[in-house]
Design a protein that fits this description.
Blueprint lengths: L1 E8 L3 E6 L9 E4 L7 H9 L7 E6 L6 H23 L1
């Protein structure tokens, strides 16, 4: 199965949102000022119900001039792909 997310930005946060319209929980956010990454919250949002046969795709919808956003996107994508690799190993 495949799970898709978009990374956008609002006035206060970077917002990682599941593209599944049936998902009703709040998206994962990172405050723009603090850039504090809550690992447990991220894992709960992105990997809830994920097994080793999943694929995760994250679309970067941030502007090219957003340097902090580029780092946030890269970090989120690397963590997501790394966790999937570990799940496949087990």
């Amino acid at each position: 199965m495949k799970r898709s997310f978009t990374l956008n930005k609002n006035d206060n946060s970077y917002v990682l949102k599941d593209t599944n319209p049936n998902r009703k929980d709040e998206p994962f956010t990172i405050d723009i000022e603090e850039l504090k990454f809550d690992t447990a919250e991220f894992y709960d949002y992105v990997f809830y119900g994920v097994t080793e046969d999943f694929e995760i795709n994250i679309e970067n919808c941030l502007g090219e001039d957003d340097k902090s956003g580029a780092i946030v996107y890269k970090t989120i994508d690397e963590i997501a792909q790394g966790v999937l690799e570990k799940l496949k190993e087990n």
